[in-house]
Amino acid sequence: MKKITLLSFALLFIGNVVFADVRLPKIFGNGMVLQRNQPIAVWGWADPNESVTVSLNKQTKTITATSDGKWLVRLDAERAGGPYQLAVNGKNKLEFTDVLVGDVWICSGQSNMEWPVSASANADEEIASASYPKIRHVKIPNTVAGEPLPDIDGAVTWQETTPANVGNFTAVGYFYARELRNALDVPIGLINTSWGGTMVETWTSKEAFEQDPEFAAMIANVPELEAEAIKGKPNAYPTLLFNAMVSPLIPYTIKGAIWYQGESNAGRAYQYRKAFPLLIKDWRQRWGLGDFPFYFVQLASFKAGGGTSATGSTWAELREAQTLTLSLPHTGMAVTTDIGETDDIHPRNKQDVGKRLALVALHDAYGKKVEYSGPVFKQFKVSGNRLTVSFDHVDGGLAAKNNATELLGFEIAGEDQQFKPAHATIKGNTVILHSDSVAKPVAVRYAWADDAGESSLFNGIGLPAAPFRTDDWPSVTQEVKYAP
């Protein structure tokens, strides 16, 4: 059978929609949520030079399609509300009903974002109580493409949060939305574009790689992709999910994004320091909405390769790369080392994940005066064989998990770079460390292991301390580079 490249398919698809009735991308549908307090992008296809009129609430705007049949209108900002009708008129008429205006969040990443409510902790109770008609969810089909697609490949449906629907929602996204809905009393829309087992590089655009010195040579060597060769293989090459599951959503107006991914990149965690910020900057540039909020979940604890400070921990290094990404504006991170499961890469407790992401959002995106982080390393001082470590985000003071008498997770090392477990004592807003095996300590690590679940430092409001290290000694993933 003759093979057809994805580019050829996309061109044929575009050709078919140009000379047709006025049409919108599939992300527009009954029951959708449009973004409040920002100009609302509405776009689509029509006959060349066709006049298209778009109406929402009390406003109407008209645009003329270009010579290739494309058109885009930006409606004036609307306050939260609805339900409304979105009407689009050309040579034919389209009407979308039960349209809400609120906050729209992209939910993306790999399996821990895709993980459904039905497989989460207390699923039966959560499903039975899920009556939030103003939280809406849409799942983007898991598809790949060798070139950016103009529209979603497959059917999509916006769904209201009911016991009949919520079981298939992204659990992290739903519990996040529920917290925001209860705190803000505005409609929340979730666009769930996630796929289990996927790496960060498949979610990033070709142009972003081409413009980055770290990845330019890599992307230049990617061949022209055949549809049959990549079908169902999201990690076969870079950009495949950006092309099929992100690009068709742009420029749908959004509030921001939440992200849970990294497990598939742990083997090259050091390069994630560049790959993950590149994705965030790429999405922000393409949406054209400025530095929109981008919040992510730090990897939970899991046995993975059993890595430790002694053997090297790829998961600890990936967590470090995630922490370093906080240097980008309007980013935030939910620490989850305490709610991982040693023998399961998919922790069932997605409720606390959603709550912690929501605290970040309430602080950063909505300007609420809430504590949103557990203790974060600030500095340390050495006095003889003891170290005093101080922290930021000590709201309510420091505490050991479940008020235990022993504080776990700290290690110290001397110039020999051999880390030993440290006796740790809380003193005010500091932690005092020492080890009989380390006479002259020079470095501290906390929760530096694949499975860091025993690490037990929290602040007074129950948020866990972020893993950290004070040394810059060589990483086990430092020389590992991505190659498709």
TrEMBL record:
Pfam families: SASA. GO terms for biological process: carbohydrate metabolic process. Residues 102-359 form the Sialate O-acetylesterase domain. One of its GO terms (molecular function) is sialate O-acetylesterase activity. The keyword Hydrolase applies. SUPFAM superfamilies: SGNH hydrolase (SSF52266). Coiled coil: none annotated. Gene3D superfamilies: Immunoglobulins, SGNH hydrolase. Keywords: Hydrolase. The keyword Hydrolase applies. InterPro entries: Ig-like_fold, SASA, SGNH_hydro_sf, SIAE. This is 9-O-acetylesterase. It comes from Parapedobacter pyrenivorans. The lineage of its organism: Bacteria, Pseudomonadati, Bacteroidota, Sphingobacteriia, Sphingobacteriales.
